[in-house]
Each structure stands twice: as structure tokens, then as C-alpha cells.
Amino acid sequence: MPTIEVAREAGACYGVNRALDLVRDAAAQAKGPIHTLGPLIHNPTVVASLADAGVTVASEPDEYRGGTLVLRTHGVTPDEEARARDAADSVLDATCPFVVRAHRAAETLTREGYQVLVFGEAGHPEVMGTLGHAPGATVVERPEDADELKLRRKVGIVVQTTQSRARLAELVRRLLGRTDEVRVMDTICEATSARQAAAAELAARVDAMVVIGGRMSANTRRLAQICADACARTHHIETAAELDPAWFAGVGAIGVTAGASTPQAQIDGVVDAIRRLTGATCVDAPAPGEKDGAQP
Ligand code: SF4
């Protein structure tokens, strides 16, 4: 009989749970209309449930006058925040504290005269927000992109929270020797790196992997890539309705992981659906070290 194992680190992180609590509390108090500036998190199921609670999405800080405007977990530029405070009666700041840390790092490097590189996905809301805190900074999407850059004598790096440390190390390697100083502000979020490590470890041991999370979610897409590198039968889904029984034909061990914007209830729903499709039983993830035969 097949087994299902959920990665020991998976699903909603501190920043997402904090943002959801803030917005749900505000909606429950019902003091007027509530809008989020862009989707609160990259999870269509959660955004739809917030809409059911009366929380709508604004595409611009001043799209609505009055009411409460929520700044999303990915953060905003100083200009967007100023426009929000001007337009709304009140602003609820749900920016993840780890993203705020990246903003502060970008400001420090700019103030101290570094050529600032933001290592992340161009156009991603978090990267756009960080750029707003470092005027003149350059986005570097891939380590090899740095080969083409004309470097000044002092180069500073701020990292999108969802990047992997291996890719950051590769970027630094490509800069060393071409400038006098490379200063790294390691703003990678530990929740992200822990989920990536657990996903890679699980994907290497199972026959099929299911990765749950929004297709617009940068950290979920990176998890799916990491799993696909270790397990050819990796499938990225947003909801249980996308599961295909053919994915599990002849499979012994099924692994499940989820991005940092996926609440536990959504993971439980997908696991239940896989059980119904395959008759699989759930097994617990081994304690750290147990899989290697290490002694407690
Ligand atoms: S993944 Fe990290 S940076 Fe992003 S919201 Fe969660 S805790 Fe914050």
C-alpha cells in the first residue's frame, strides 16, 4: 500500500499567519470597508476566502478613498505607503518583519555608498518594494547575470527572502576579484530555507512529489523546482481538484510539501484527497538525523 509523507517543514510561515490574523481580526471588527493593496499573499484560495469575509483587493494605493488599506506581506515602496496613508482612513501594515529587514538593509547599503544589487525576481512585488528603498539599485535575477555588470568599488547585495543560499553563494563567487568590496546582507528568510531543505530531503526519498501553493508564489515555484531536481514525478498544484490519479500509478511513496503561503487546512485537504485516490496511509516524517541512522 502506498504511503504519504508530509515534509517536516511545510506550509504557512510566521509572516503569512501574522498577516492573516491581522486581516481577519480587522474584518471581524467590521469598522468599514477593508482592501488589501494587491493580493495579501500569493494564494488564490485564501484570497477568495478573504473576499467572502468582505476583504477586497485594490490594485493602487489610492484606488479607494477611506476605509482600511492593508499593506501586503511582500511589502511596498515608501511612495506606495505614503499614497496609501493619504487615501485611506487607516493603514494596517501586514508587511512581514523579515521583508522589513530587507528594506532596512537596502537603505543601509544605499546610505553607505554601495552599488546595490537586489538578488531576486524582477517584477516580483517583494523585489519592487525593496527597490523602492534603494533608489538606483539593480535587480540581478541569476548569478550569471552579474558577469555583464560594470561594478563600482563597493558592491552590496540584498537578497529576496525566498532565494536559496546556494544561488547567493554563486553570485558572490562571480563578483569576488572584480571589485574591492562585496558586502552581503543575508536577508533570506529561515522559513524559506528550512522548507527548501526539507523538500529536497523528502523528494530524494519518494516516488512522486506534490507541491501545494499558488502559481504566482515565488517560494512555492522554487520548492517545485527543488523537488523536480530530485524527483521527476513532481507536480505543482493550487488545489486538490487538480490531482490526477495517473500521477500515482505504481507509486510506493508519495511526498507532499507546500509553500509558505499555504495554510495547514489546505495541506490536510490535499492529503485527504490523495488518500481517497490511492488508498495510501500517512506516515510521519522522520526526526532530524533519524533517516541517516544517527543516534538520538
Ligand atoms: S516566507 Fe519568510 S519572509 Fe516570506 S512571509 Fe514567510 S516568514 Fe515572511
Please characterize this protein's 3D structure.
Its cofactor is [4Fe-4S] cluster. Keywords: 4Fe-4S, Iron, Iron-sulfur, Isoprene biosynthesis, Metal-binding, Oxidoreductase. It is an enzyme of class 1 (oxidoreductase). The model is unreliable at 289-296 (pLDDT under 50). Strand 8, helix 6 and strand 9 (181-185) form a beta-alpha-beta unit. The protein is an alpha/beta fold. The chain has helices at residues 14-29, 44-52, 78-87, 97-111, 125-132, 165-175, 190-203, 218-230, 264-278; strands at residues 3-6, 34-37, 55-58, 68-71, 90-93, 115-119, 138-140, 154-159, 181-185, 208-212, 234-237, 253-258, 281-283. A five-stranded parallel sheet has the order 11-10-12-1-13, with helices on both faces. Strands 3-2-4-5 form a four-stranded parallel sheet, sandwiched between helices. A four-stranded parallel sheet has the order 7-6-8-9, with helices on both faces. The chain folds into three domains: 3-12 and 191-284, Cobalt-precorrin-4 Transmethylase, domain 1; 14-95, 3-Layer(aba) Sandwich (Rossmann fold), CATH 3.40.50.11270; 98-188, 4-hydroxy-3-methylbut-2-enyl diphosphate reductase, catalytic domain (Cobalt-precorrin-4 Transmethylase, domain 1). The longest helix is centred in the N-terminal third of the chain and has 16 residues, at 14-29. 38% of the residues lie in helices and 19% in strands. The chain is built from nine helices and 13 strands. Iron/sulfur cluster (SF4) is lined by residues 13-16, 73, 96, 98-99, 161, 189, 191-192, 219, 260.
